Description:
3 domains, Nonspecific Lipid-transfer Protein, Chain A, aminoglycoside N-acetyltransferase activity, Acetyltransf_17
Amino acid sequence: MTEIGVRSAVRGEYDEIQGLFGGAMMFEASDDDLGRAMFEPDRALVATDGDDLVGTARALTRDLSVPGAVVPAAHVTGVGVRATHRRRGILSELMQRQLREVPEAIAVLWASEPAIYGRFGYGAAAWATSYEIDLHRVGPPAVRIRPGEIVELAPDDAAKELATLLRSLQERRPGVSGRSELGWQKRLQDKPDGRGGKTARRILVHRDETGAVDGYALWRGKMNWGPTGPANEVTLEELVAVEPIAYRALWQHVLTLDLAATLQFSYAAMDEPLQQLVTTPTALNRRVSESLWLRVTDVARALGQRQYAVPVDLVFEVADDLIAANAGRFRLTANGPQVRCERTEDPADLSLSVTELGAVYLGGRSLAEFAATGRITEHTPGALTTAGAAFSWPIQPASIEVF
Ligand SMILES: CC(C)(COP(=O)(O)OP(=O)(O)OC[C@H]1O[C@@H](n2cnc3c(N)ncnc32)[C@H](O)[C@@H]1OP(=O)(O)O)[C@@H](O)C(=O)NCCC(=O)NCCS
């Protein structure tokens, strides 16, 4: 058996790397110009066995909304190890090297299985609620929509207006990833062989009385004619609205489509406002799962670049088995937009590992939840209450796409 090596990828290797990832995930990688154009070889690692690629992990350069700011975040993706080479430590090698090399203060990913990434210091920082909506029972919001308020756009005309709305969403909700121009092209790409039997994607926008676009929805349909009549299926891919009226109108539109019986939506937030707009929330058929996992790669920089809900001045003792520079005590001082985090020799008020820090970073998890199982320890009475309030955020984090 040859020795396994780990190295950076080179530009021409995209197809082979994507093929390897597809093999691990069990999908057939298709020709993908945009994927190739967006490939960042210096941010892709490969594990080799002789001349063969046997493992890979990539990172994309994107930004992410966090409480009170939009910051750079390594978006980790394309992680896979050839089935013949599993459980020999290849993922561990790839993850350790990737974490050492990440220039951003945080890294994020969606995990195929929740058991994989905790050991590398990632914490589940956001949840996704998926809806399987029974359209006959749900009772959509009642909104009077005037002609011209909701219109369909062609993909080529849509990206610019949609990008503005996504940026507005980032200003309010943590956990939302930004998209480059190429990223938008990829998001709106709609190859017939990628539709899974559904219609082409429909791009809807809502316009306010001045004609400005203040919300959009991406959806597809699938005809399904049952023994008792029409039971079409709607898949909502994304719904972003910056004004309440746009939010209500777009939801009403997709919940009342003729011939449809069900609507599937996988990216609702825990505090999705739709829940209080429908008459029968149980008809949403909600299911919750982890969405964004977050790894703090530079404690002082990461804590210094988000904002806090209440003033705080506390010392955190952080444990990190993989990144030595993260281990130790840090004083976090925040009052409104003034935030500082630096190393200190002062005694700790709270201690925790980098995994819990990642989990609470976006404001969607409670510190008390971790303290109750001994994963966060309070040394100074009251520190847990103050830190819990400071790290919380009025809007729950939500990631609106798997990357
Ligand atoms: C998940 C995957 C990347 C793991 O690669 P690997 O090289 O076998 O992982 P390692 O050998 O480095 O495993 C490290 C540890 O994680 C554990 N582990 C790895 N994959 C796991 C999984 N899917 N579930 C639970 N534990 C897992 C291993 O048992 C090992 O634990 P140990 O240190 O206590 O022995 C690989 O199995 C794979 O490609 N799976 C299919 C594609 C996929 O799910 N990719 C992730 C996309 S987010």
